[in-house]
Amino acid sequence: MTILRKYMGDFYCKRAAEKILELPKGNIFLTTGFYVAGHAETDGPLGTMTLAKALRAVGYRPIIVTDKYCRGFFELEDLDVEYAHICDGVEQYTEVLEDYDPVALISIERCGKNIEDDYANMRGVSIKKNTAKADILFDLAKKRGIPTFGVGDGGNEIGMGNLKEVIVDKLALVPCKVEVDNLIIATVSNWGAYALAAYIQKIEKIQVLPTYKEIKSYLQAIVDLGSIDGVTKEQVLSVDGFPLTVEKEILDELHRAVGTGIF
Fold first, then answer.
1. Which of 73, 92, 183, 250 could be a cystine partner for 88, CB 3.0 to 4.6 Å?
2. For the whole model, what pTM was predicted?
3. CATH superfamily assigned to domain 2-260
């Protein structure tokens, strides 16, 4: 992400948080769940849970759009969930969009169609047969003028289409082609979602950023339900190969930044 950072504007995360909070109160779709070796990886659900609860605390109704690999993850936090199916297409997603009439869509570490019209992991292996096409929602939202946001860390996630030419040139990867109105990049997508929650906390002056203890507890719960580290492919308490000590450092720094006004 260091390479891509210079192609982003200043304060892109802060601006995204401000734009979210300018939205009229209503339903907000959050989609996550990245397929890895028969499971959903741990990057994505933690950030989605965090941001969803932050949005709920300030008056929005978050609705998680995911697939069977995240089954049970978000019910743990009493969040509403809409399960998409692998075979769902434009008709099904149009119906979901019309039923809920969301004021915005947010993707956090969700695979999107790439420039070769495939859905692939970071190793370039196709996961199309195991990925519900939630990115269709973002194409439909664009046509309807519904604001969209994306958090990604690798290049194959919904939203990274904003930087697809740069990704091809600088990273030699096959990037996702799905664009969003507001892109947030991070070393780990969960961390980008935590930062959005931190800005919401600062702007709204309401405690929404979770503690390390809360994140660790939730991570343990989803690992018990089958979630795995996307890098190591192990059912352990880690995210993208980073140990929990790093997760604690990130959360501690965000709490410090909000508390001292560094943001």
1. 92
2. 0.97
3. TON_0340 (3.90.1640.20)
